[in-house]
Design brief:
The chain is built from 16 helices and four strands. The chain has 370 residues and is α+β, with helices and mostly antiparallel strands. It has two domains: 9-260, Tetratricopeptide repeat domain (Serine Threonine Protein Phosphatase 5, Tetratricopeptide repeat), CATH 1.25.40; 274-366, no CATH class.
């Protein structure tokens, strides 16, 4: 159900929710167990769970599902998929030890599921977690991690020979991380670029984002801040395009990215980039306009749509009253949801300096009567 091809997460979530509803109605408990964990991972990536580093939410409890899965050996497929999803979730959140624990749980189960594509996801994310944790590990652990990384890279290289579109970016990125660990800086640079290019050309927005983010960490650790923050900004764009707003918000906590990113709105900028909105956003907004009768509810719905698809923390609705712009509504994000407050206030530099997206228009009562 999780797309390995970089499909927009909003679409993937809708498909997962539809599949879950069908499985529950048909009483396919085995399929329900498979989808529930994956759906929680999607929600985490989209920033719809209270804590980005956890799959827990009001509809899902990690511990309870793990106990259920491990109590029934017949659920090997669902259990394996769950631990791989948890591996991915912990990796995106930067919890590399927890990611490696999840990888170890999946490893024993994969031996009973030969030939399934999930082994590629396990190898890829497991390798990246090992590489990220490498310098914090003991000397003995480092030897084991590096051996596992080389074995993974060998397997990905073999798969790349048969299908470079799918595996070229993965093999290059693991190769880049090995080169980084071994101090081969020029090789690491070339591999990062190859991974980014291959992922972009073949539509893997998530892997393009990961490759940019890891390249950013490489350059920042080497003291090249301009290059590092440029790559980090590119990573943010990739995650935003993928729909991983939870990851976007996490990157936005980096002070250097806030200062350097050209995508932050200044106090003199009104609007949002068109390429950050997709057809689904336009349709959703159109449906909101046609279905909402109360003006307050309409404003709330439109602000939620705009914030969601722009990936912003804060947004303002600004209307022109004659020649004077005034703030009519404010939207802020927190705990995985968007809060909208209707208000009327003057537009000041202090109000707009912290805004990520602004929507503007004229007040309906002030339109030219002609």
């Amino acid at each position: 159900m999780i797309s390995n091809t970089g499909d927009p997460l909003g679409e993937v979530q809708r498909e997962a929710e539809n599949g879950l509803e069908f499985a529950r109605e048909a009483k396919f408990g085995y399929v329900v167990d498979i989808i529930v964990g994956q759906l929680s991972f999607i929600r985490t990536l989209r920033g719809l769970t209270p804590i980005f580093s956890s799959l827990n939410c009001p509809e899902f409890d990690e511990i309870r599902l793990e106990q259920h899965l491990e109590a029934d050996p017949r659920l090997v497929f669902a259990t394996c998929w769950y631990w791989i999803r948890k591996l991915q979730a912990r990796f995106f959140a930067g919890g590399y030890l927890s990611a490696l624990f999840a990888a170890s749980k999946a490893e024993t189960l994969l031996q009973r599921l030969p030939g399934h594509f999930e082994i590629a996801e396990y190898l890829f994310y497991g390798a990246l977690a090992r590489a990220a944790h490498y310098h914090a590990a003991s000397a003995d652990e480092q030897v084991r991690h590096l051996d596992a990384l080389r074995a993974c890279c060998k397997q990905l290289d073999a798969w790349e020979q048969n299908c470079p579109e799918n595996f070229g970016n993965r093999a290059a990125l693991v190769g880049a991380e090995i080169a980084r660990i071994e101090g081969r800086e020029l090789s690491a640079q070339r591999f990062y670029e190859k991974a980014i290019r291959s992922a972009r050309e073949n539509g893997f927005a998530q892997n393009e984002g990961i490759a940019n983010e890891l390249a950013a960490k490489f350059y920042l650790a080497s003291g090249f801040e301009t290059s590092g923050y440029a790559y980090l900004s590119n990573a943010r764009d990739c995650y935003l395009r993928w729909g991983a707003l939870g990851k976007v918000w996490r990157l936005d906590q980096c002070p250097g990215l806030r200062e350097e990113s050209p995508h932050r709105m200044s106090s003199t900028t009104i609007g949002t980039r068109v390429d950050q909105l997709d057809l689904g956003a336009v349709i959703k907004a159109s449906q909101a306009v046609s279905s909402e009768i109360m003006l307050g509810k309409l404003i709330e719905t439109l602000m939620q749509v705009a914030i969601e698809h722009a990936g912003a923390h804060r947004g303002l609705l600004i209307l022109l009253w004659g020649d004077e712009p005034r703030i009519e509504a404010e939207a802020t994000t927190g705990l995985g949801k968007v809060e909208v407050t209707l208000r009327r206030a003057a537009v000041t530099p202090s109000e707009t300096s912290r805004v990520g997206i602004s929507l503007c228009g004229s007040d309906p009562g002030e339109r030219d009567p002609r």
